[in-house]
């Protein structure tokens, strides 16, 4: 039989329900994998070994009694910037080193109510600041396909945990690309939902007008299963929309008439690697053969998105992170007067990139600069959003590369913040517009590193995004089979 | 171009202690980032409304009712310093 930890949600569910194996065996297989691989990969900050096995034993009783729910007995992992009741949640920053939230984020609560077994908390860039997972105060996360490469970020640990089969699925956050980019670098499926689709209650806020919570899974089918559980309005997050949530797993294989747009700007970036371009073009051809209509489209404001993002995000960051002050929870450096307490606590508790973001934000919002930076960025944001509104009158989804390159070397961009910011160039436009986007594996480059394909849809258009992602995944499996 | 003096000023506003080396590194790297932002000057934004959020929702309210807090003990356990179930903070006025 296949190693249990390599199963998907769907195959694990079937095996558990048929009593082919127990949740204790499945959970132990994941824990063994973590023991074997985590010292090298550094994907977990906290592993809940004892608690997970206890939960698995309880799950086995429920399964035996025939009352299993969608996720009963299935081990999952969570980015450490998302609150998990009774389990330490550091956001990968020392300021929260000893922080144990007394409550669950809404998405975690929903997964727990469906029986998910929490196996541990994943390393990430501190407070979600980064595109390589090198900005963690608990060390960098390594790419399982090549240990000299980054995992991507900021939800790098979660992508690695799924890619390396340390869990069955994981939950991360995507503000500018923090789910899609590591999903692409590690070869798993990662979804940024529409802004307002999933509740953000209980995530450590970074940029509130952009933050989203979404899953990492091994297949698109699993993605639909998790979204069916976590999507929907939440009275604890006033930005969630009241729209009815479709049943994604039921409509996944529907072959709707979907028009696919290819935005020329995404293929014009000078950094775009030729191998990636070829892989995407092959996939587009294969979609064409399946009689999907392919349309060339343009999103003229694409190139301004990164500049907009790196004004809006640090501004909102600097305000959100003001709560990390050493007063009510987390670390406190008790030294000198109140000012010194704040300044020293924040100095010791934040890594360099978090400080940089707070400084940029404080500067952009300060008197005399607000109009030139924040307001200007928000105006250009309108134009980028309008681009998407217009293009989605003509097509149903867009297909692009997820990243202009595959996973880069550890250390390659860590001393050059602007180069790191520009790594998310293909991910940020969808984020500032609040539209859903998925990264699905599309193949590998000549060095064996995964290449991700991004499918972007209109607001609340997760259904067609998942359908096209499934088509891409299926064509890849056929291809792999032939090889 | 951001000067060391400006970095010192914003670090003070943001309540972050920085070493002289950090001040100099932040001045350099933030200057590069701010320079990149100039690309936005190419865009004509006359009469363009700023976008602060994308949902179109407004005035989302809930009933103003109190709930019993069931996690008082856990919340107290997270506080850096507690005395008789109260959070201890340093003096605000000197």
Q: What's the helix and strand layout?
A:
The complex is a heterodimer of chains A (483) and B (94).
Chain A: H1 9-17, H2 23-41, E1 44-47, H3 49-64, E2 75-79, H4 106-113, E3 117-122, E4 142-143, E5 146-150, H5 156-163, E6 169-174, H6 180-186, E7 189-192, E8 212-217, H7 220-230, H8 248-251, E9 259-263, H9 264-267, H10 274-289, E10 293-297, H11 305-320, H12 338-349, H13 352-365, H14 371-394, E11 397-401, H15 417-422, H16 428-433, E12 437-444, E13 450-456, H17 462-482
Parallel strand pairs in A: 2-3, 2-6, 9-10, 9-11
Antiparallel strand pairs in A: 1-3, 4-5, 6-8, 7-8, 7-12, 11-13, 12-13
Helix pairs in contact in A: 2-3, 7-17, 11-13, 11-14
Chain B: H1 4-13, H2 20-36, H3 72-77, E1 82-83, E2 86-87
Antiparallel strand pairs in B: 1-2
Helix pairs in contact in B: 1-2
Report the top-level CATH class of the domain at 1-41 in chain B: Mainly Alpha
Radius of gyration of chain A: 21 Å
Biggest sheet statistics of chain B: 2 strands, antiparallel
Helicity range of the residues of chain B? 25-40%
Number of strands of chain A: 13
First-residue to last-residue Cα separation of chain A: 23 Å
* Uncertain ranges of chain B: none
Helix/sheet category of chain A: alpha/beta
In CATH, the topology of the domain at 1-41 in chain B is named Histone, subunit A
Q: Under the CATH scheme, which class of chain A? A: Alpha Beta
CATH architecture of the domain at 1-41 in chain B: Orthogonal Bundle
What is the global morphology of chain A? globular
Distance between the termini of chain B: 37 Å
> What form of chain B results from the Cα inertia axes?
flat
CATH architecture annotation of chain A = Alpha-Beta Complex
Number of alpha- plus pi-helical segments of chain B: 3
What is the CATH topology descriptor of chain A?
Answer: Amidase signature (AS) enzymes
SSE arrangement of chain B, N to C: HHHEE
Percent of residues in helices of chain A comes to 40-55%
Question: Which residue ranges of chain A are poorly predicted, with pLDDT under 50 across at least 5 consecutive positions?
Answer: none
